[in-house]
């Protein structure tokens, strides 16, 4: 129970920081006429809220669908998991759906046209008897019009609703 409380505190703190920093960045400078402000997508890369998971023997593959919500192409450069708790070790990161046979390595540049979606999947070695309380988020580096950016994306607040069969994790959904 204490671990779950710690996880919730960490996730809430990260969300508060992101909302606060984006709010501060979006505030107009005093004296700037509102007519000079053009609506823009603050973050071209976003999470669609679709997730997937596949157990591969004692490994776990987790994925999220991402979308280019801007009006211009982006190039996905690198993706990595954000693991505030120990218990998982990332082994493979790919652009492509869970269980896909020939995915594209997420270290390779991956063009994503305006409005298009793709899956980001990461395969993990599970280092604990039961991964249920572990949160997993994602960070994606990209370029758009020669400018670099980073998108911090949610994914799994914990793995309690992710099926994982193990003799030591019998209560998996």
From TrEMBL:
Keywords: Signal. Residues 1-24 form the signal peptide. This is DUF4232 domain-containing protein.
């Amino acid at each position: 129970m204490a671990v779950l409380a710690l996880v919730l505190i960490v996730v809430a703190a990260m969300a508060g920081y992101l909302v606060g920093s984006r709010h501060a960045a979006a505030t107009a400078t005093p004296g700037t006429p509102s007519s000079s402000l053009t609506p823009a997508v603050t973050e071209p890369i976003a999470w669609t809220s679709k997730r997937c998971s596949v157990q591969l023997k004692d490994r776990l593959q987790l994925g999220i669908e991402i979308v280019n919500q801007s009006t211009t192409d982006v190039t996905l450069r690198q993706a990595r998991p954000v693991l505030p708790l120990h218990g998982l070790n990332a082994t493979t990161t790919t652009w492509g759906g869970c269980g896909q046979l020939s995915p594209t390595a997420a270290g390779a540049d991956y063009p994503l046209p305006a409005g298009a979606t793709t899956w980001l999947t990461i395969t993990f070695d599970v280092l604990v008897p039961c991964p249920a309380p572990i949160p997993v988020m994602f960070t994606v580096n990209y370029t758009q019009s020669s400018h670099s950016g980073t998108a911090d994306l949610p994914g799994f607040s914990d793995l309690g609703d992710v099926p994982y069969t193990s003799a030591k994790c019998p209560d998996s959904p």
